[in-house]
Structure formats: structure tokens, C-alpha cells
Amino acid sequence: MLFSAEEYEQRLAAVRRRMRDQGLSGLIVTDPANMFYLTGYNAWSFYTPQLLYVPASGPMTLFAREMDAHGAQRTCWLPEEDIVGYPERYVHRPHIHPFDWVAFALRQRWEVAPAAHGCIGVEMDSHYYSPRAHRALVHGIPEWTLVDSFELVNWIRAIKSPAEIAIMRQAAQVTTAAMNAALNAVEPGARQNDVAAAIAHAQAAGTAEVWGDFPAIVPMLPTGEGADTPHLTWTDRRLAAGEPVVIELAGAHHRYHVPLARTVMLGEPPAQLQHTADVVAEALNEVLETMRPDVPVAELARVWNAVLARHEMVKESRLGYSIGIGYPPDWGERTISLRSEDEQVLAAGMTFHVIAGMWLDGIGYEVSEPVAVTATGVERFTDFPQNLIRR
Amino acid sequence: MLFSAEEYEQRLAAVRRRMRDQGLSGLIVTDPANMFYLTGYNAWSFYTPQLLYVPASGPMTLFAREMDAHGAQRTCWLPEEDIVGYPERYVHRPHIHPFDWVAFALRQRWEVAPAAHGCIGVEMDSHYYSPRAHRALVHGIPEWTLVDSFELVNWIRAIKSPAEIAIMRQAAQVTTAAMNAALNAVEPGARQNDVAAAIAHAQAAGTAEVWGDFPAIVPMLPTGEGADTPHLTWTDRRLAAGEPVVIELAGAHHRYHVPLARTVMLGEPPAQLQHTADVVAEALNEVLETMRPDVPVAELARVWNAVLARHEMVKESRLGYSIGIGYPPDWGERTISLRSEDEQVLAAGMTFHVIAGMWLDGIGYEVSEPVAVTATGVERFTDFPQNLIRR
Predict the structure, then answer these.
(1) Mutation for A interface: B42, B139, B154, B193, most A CBs within 10 A
(2) Least enclosed by CB within 10 Å: which of A73, A79, A215, B293?
(3) Residues B169-225: tens digit of each pLDDT
(4) Same structural domain for residues B151 and B298?
(5) Are the CB atoms for A244 and A227 separated by under 8 Å?
(6) Does the distance separating the beta carbons of B129 and A134 come in below 8 Å?
(7) Please, what is the Cα angle at A217 between A214 and A222, to 5 degrees?
(8) Looking at residue B2, what DSSP letter applies?
């Protein structure tokens, strides 16, 4: 087990407290990050439907494809009898769904009844829970009233334990190795895909002490004119002198992610880019200095915008987001966003990717800091210089 | 544009014919592979909701997050006015969804009315279409009756054009480079993650002529006892002499995938493993020799099972699946599966990953062939020996 039995018990207890607060007598978890958080189950099996049922009390049950359920105990700490495989013949069939079978199995395992159970939460916006999956449960267990859990487990994950922070510090070593590999590979004439190859190698190799786990998102290298599209993936386009190259990547360890972004200028930076970099570094540091427990997230956006306004600059997208466990397609936790609309307040143990992505006319600039909120401020997970890097 | 305007027109016409056959006067596409197929749009932006609306006639409309819509034309051939960005403030908010905004925008762009439009197809089981997204459309456009499109575009994708086959031949060069990198890295004492690093490097680097695109699934290395769990991802466990190591990976080029699996024996293979490998090679070749247009898919399963039965062996899971464009978490197309329940018939231009994964007591063995169905048989995309590889 990656974490102690006590820590898994605490996680489950926290989830159940929140279930009670939301009026839920059961919870259906389909997000692989949430399954990993509660049971340790970890495999690239989420492309076929999976489900963890969390009742108000008693053991949880994990449902997965038969071939995956068979060896699930290699990562999942649930006892064998609580890991159930659905038959292979339900996979990728047009008019039946694995959850038709799972609904029946749930009926058999739990005496489903409206009075005893009431509302059951489902993750209405998780990446691996489709409308067809939802419909199978709605029709297969009509006694249950399924309601949105509103990222219930994700919210519990927002505050990390010391053991989780320790793993993120290890992930940060992978991040550092991957960013160094990127900085070494970036040069005029290099193909983007060769830079990506160098990064991908370092992301898996990690260091002699810390192995690299697969990242939830591939390295992003917005370059030159394409920098106006932050999520464009690489091709064999060659980097050219005079271009800024944005590098956004993450190191991962045991599914915990520490993302990092830097911008490399191949040659002499245009005055506007250097000015942007200076302003962003100033604003980013004011934000980091403001971060501590009890500060509202909205205050960070205010501080950031105030510095930018002094220099007559603006940034419309969010300034960062909560990070931790990640599976494709995202290493964000889909909970706290650093922006003025967010009503959350910082607490010790929260971890964020504070990212300033600026898209100017034809030029992209990004710099970020992955941090943990401590009792008195923030701990930076990596220590790269925060300014424009020149090559 | 990656393909000719004529090819994109043919794809859209084929989709619209199938829409008519299924009684649909509109189609909502959310699977990034289907969006890429119809519009060329390609970015790692699918972690926030995206939608392509395909009316029965007239221009398609692509909706994406504002920061992604802004530069979407770098990959998408739709005219600028048909690419619409939804505001950043809709991203990852608990009680609103981007499709609340998109539903309103669709109402404005298209005169939604039940009489004129009738049923609109939605991809009820696509990975990036959540129940919350579906609910936003149901409530936002009550005039539309949304029905399952049953992988409508995926089915059109099942038969590849010559231009698509040509790209898959290029992807196969990446596959070959990646498999060779794996075979070089696998040795007793090597950490699994270092083998994965070598593979990941080759997958992106490709060759001097063909760049490697990111694969939809990370390399799988089921080894030793863990080989009973086909989708377990790597750790820093060291390979040991006497173990079989399964390698399953894909090369990708312009999002088209050619997957391949081989098993490497570190030392002298146990008699049972060598016997399994021999039987599987025999069965696999009988299957490949059977493949040609007009042969029912179920016949392949019958041939396969007959050879295994002669040797008193069985395999329960499917023998392969349709391949082509892939995004995480899957490089399969979720249409044709090579198994006895499948009612499809082979046709020229179909492409498959024919994969024999055998899980014996404590030992895993996998070997596969990626192939295209030709007018007279099959074309193998790669040419690795089909037997157990010794190191």
C-alpha cells in the first residue's frame, strides 16, 4: 500500500462526512484519480467503464472489466471479494453497456431500496462517466435517486496530507529532470518532436532515486506563431532563432503531478517580451508572497491584476488551479481555480500550479510555480529562475 | 490541411448519409478523434468540453474554450466564423457548464425548432461527453430530441482511404523504431521505467523522415507475476532473468496509430511458454490468412478458436479491434471487435490490431499484428518475427 491503512481510513471517513453533509447515502465514483485516492487502484484500464461504489457504511466495491479485475489487487487494497469483474462480452457493444451488468450486480450485493438508501451521488462531470453509463444505472436501479456529487472526492483531495506532500516533492525531482532535459534540447534547428522525445525520456526515467510515472498531459511546446494556441501538440516543425519557445510539462511519481512552465528565448528577446517577462515575474512573486492559510483565492487574483494594471496589462484566463493525482487528460483536480470568481479560502496542505500564461500579439509567454500552502506561506516545489530563459 | 478538400467532403457526405439512415437531422460530435476526422482540429484541449455541430446541410460549427478556439485554425480547416469560443468563466465551475453557454449559442446560430430539426444524434458513450454536458443540452435546447448516434462517425472511420493507409504506413515506421528501442532496453536488471523512457523517446523522435506523434496509450510492460494484469503501468521494478516481458506499444503519426505487441523472454523460456508461443503463432497466421473482404469477423474468431482447441487452449477476450485515429485513453475505434459476437463483415480498407493476449498461470504472453485489409487479403504494417523473442 502506498499510504498507511490509517490514511486510507481517514480519506474514506472524510468522504463519508461530506456525503452526509450533501444528503447522500451512497456514492458512485468513476474518476480514476478518485478511485486511486480511495483504494490505490491504478492501471490504464479506465478506457473501459469502471465504478467504485461507496456506501454510507460497510465495504466499498470496485467493478472493472474482468481482465482488469483479475489482477486489480496488485495496486488496490480492497479484499478480493470486493473487486468484481464484468464479462468481456459487454465491452464495446453498441446496444449494451457494462453498467447494465454492474447495475444488476449492485442490486445483488446491496439490498437496494428507496427508504434505506435515498440519494446516491454520481460524478456527473467526470471524464470516464458517459451519458450511456449514467442511463444504465438510472434504468437498472430505479429505486435509487442519482444526484450530482459535485466533485465530492475531488474536494476532499484538495488538502494534501504530509505523506502526499512528500510524494509531490519526489515528483518535483522528476519535473526538474524533465525541465533540464527540455532546456538542453531546445535550440535553433531542433525538431519539436525531438525536444518532446528528450522530455518524455526524462519524465519516465526520473532520477536514480525517483522513478518517473506517466504524465497526465504530454509536453506542450507552443512556439512562434503557434504560441497563440496553448494546447497545440508538437510536430516536426524546427525551432528557429529569434523565437520564444514555451515549455509546459509535469513530472509525476505514483500518479502525483508537479507541473512547471518556462519560456526559452532563442536569441535576443524583443523588448515587449522581456518587459512582459519582468512584469509577470513581479506579479507572480507578489501572488506567492500573498499566499498563506485563510487568504481568499479571489485576493490572489486581485493582487495579480493590480500588478498587471500598474503596467497596463491584462490576463483573462485563470491564474492557476489545484494539483495532485492526475490521469489523462488532465493533471488539474477540477476544484479550486485561482481567479476572482472562486469563493475558496487557502488552507495549509493545498497544492497549486500557479501559472501565468500571457498571449500577446503573435508571442506566447508562460512561467509558473508549483507550490504547497504551508502554515505560514508557500513552499516552492522547484527552483528554476522565474524569468525568461535565454539560449 | 492533412487531407484533400475532396476527402473531407467525402467524409462529411458519408456521415450525412448515415445520419439520414438513422433518422437524424443533426449530429453533435464530442469525441476528439471524430472532430479530427471531420475538421482536422487537433489539440490537447479535450480536457475541457468541446462540441462539433453537424447539421443535415450547411456549415459545421466547432465550439471550444475561448483560448483554444482562438488558434483552432492552426489545425482546423473550418472558416473562422464557424469556430466559436465559450468564455473562460464557464471552465470548472461547480454549478454551470460550458454547454449551458453552447446551448444558447446553438439556439442563436440555428433556428432550433422541433419540426425543422427532429432528432439530433449525440455520442452517448464518447469519453469526453459527460452526463452534465448532456443535461446542459437537454435543458438548453428542449426543442431538440437528443438520441444516441451509436458511434456514427466511428463507423464511417472503420474503412480507411488510401491517404489514411499511407499515413498508417508512416506511423508503422515509428512503431518499428519504438519496438526496436524497447528490445534494446529490455535486459535483466533494467528498471521498467527506464525501458518505458527508451520507448517514449523513440515514439516521439520517430525517424529522420517520420516524426512521432504522442500515443493514445502509454507503453505497457506486463512482467513476471504482474503479467496477469494487462493494463498495469510501469514502476521502477527491475526486470529479472527468467522472466517473460510483454511489450505493447504504438507508433503514431498525425494521430493515426499502429500498435504492436511482442513478448521477450529473459533467458530460457519454460516449456509451457514456448508451447503457447508456437500455438499462438500458428493460430495468428491462420487468422491472417483467412482475412479478406466479405469474410465475417466471427469467422476469424472461429478459426482462432479451432486452432487453440486442437491444442486444448482457450482465450476468452477479443482477438483484436479496429484501429486508426486515437486520442487518450484509447487507440481503438470502439466499433469492430474480432470476436464471435461481432456481426460485421471485413471490407478492403479496414485496419485492425489483431492481438493474442494469453494469460496463463502466472505467465503472460502477447503477440500481435497490425494489418490493413486489402482487395485480396491483408497487408502487415510491421515485420517483426511472430514468435517469442529471446534475450
Answers:
(1) B193
(2) A79
(3) 999 999 999 999 999 999 999 999 999 999 999 999 999 999 999 999 999 998 877
(4) no
(5) yes
(6) no
(7) 130
(8) -
C-alpha cell recorded at residue A222: 507552443
Range of the domain at B381: 159-390
Q: Are A165 and A171 in contact (CB under 8 A)?
A: no
Whether A27 and A173 share a structural domain: no
Q: What is the domain-level CATH number for residue A372?
A: 3.90.230.10
B194, A205: Cβ pair inside 8 Å? yes
Q: What is the pLDDT of residues B344-357, one digit of tens each?
A: 999 999 999 999 98
Task: Give the separation between CA B240 and CA B244, rounded to whole angstroms.
Answer: 9
Q: How far is A89 from chain B (nearest CA, A)?
A: 8
- Are A129 and A212 members of one domain? no
**Distance between B128 CA and the closest CA of chain A, angstroms:** 6
Q: Both A190 and A49 in a single domain?
A: no
Residues B167 and B151 in one domain: no
Nearest CA-CA distance, residue B141 and chain A, Å? 17
Residue B67 and residue B216 in one domain: no
Q: Which residue in chain B is spatially nearest to A129 when comparing CA positions?
A: B130
CA B315 to CA B279: how far, in whole Å? Answer: 12
Separation of alpha carbons B259 and B239, rounded Å: 23
> Please, which pLDDT band fits residue B370 given cuts at 50, 70 and 90?
very high
Residue type, B251: G
Intra-chain end-to-end CA distance of chain B, in Å: 44
Cell of residue A213, nine digits: 510515472
CB contact under 8 A, A122 and B129: no
Q: pLDDT for A323-354, tens place per residue?
A: 999 999 999 999 999 999 999 999 999 999 99
List the single residue in B42, B70, B329 with the smallest CB-CB distance to A47. B329
Residues B195 and B313 grouped into a single domain = yes
**Grid cell in block for residue A148:** 450530482
Residues of chain B neighbouring A316 (CB-CB closer than 8 A): 66, 88
What is the Cα–Cα distance from B365 to B377, expressed in whole angstroms? 26
A384: Cβ–Cβ under 8 A, 6 or more apart, which residues? Answer: A176, A179, A260, A262
B-chain residues within 8 Å CB-CB of A131? 122, 124-125, 129-131, 133-134
Task: Report which secondary-structure segment, H or E, holds A195.
Answer: helix A192-205
Kindly tell me the number of DSSP H helices and DSSP E strands found in chain B.
Answer: 11, 14
- CA A293 – CA B94 distance, rounded (Å): 23
The reply to whether residue A233 touches residue B201, judged by beta carbons under 8 angstroms, is no
| B265, containing H or E segment | strand B256-265
| Other CB atoms within 10 A of residue A3 CB | 17
Residues facing B245 on adjacent strands:
B223, B264
Q: What is the rounded distance in angstroms from the CA atom of residue A284 to the CA atom of residue A300?
A: 10
* pTM for the full predicted model: 0.97
Phi, psi for residue A317 in degrees, rounded to 5: -80, 170
Q: Mean pLDDT throughout A360-378?
A: 91
> Are residues B226 and A74, on separate chains, in Cβ contact within 8 Å?
yes
Q: Look at residue A94 in the predicted model and tell me its pLDDT.
A: 83
B362: burial class by Cβ within 10 Å (0-12, 13-18, 19+)?
A: exposed
Flag if A125 and B125 touch (Cβ within 8 Å).
no
Same domain, A147 and A259: no
Is B205 in contact with A228 (Cβ distance < 8 A)? no
* Contact of A301 with A339, CB cutoff 8 Å: yes
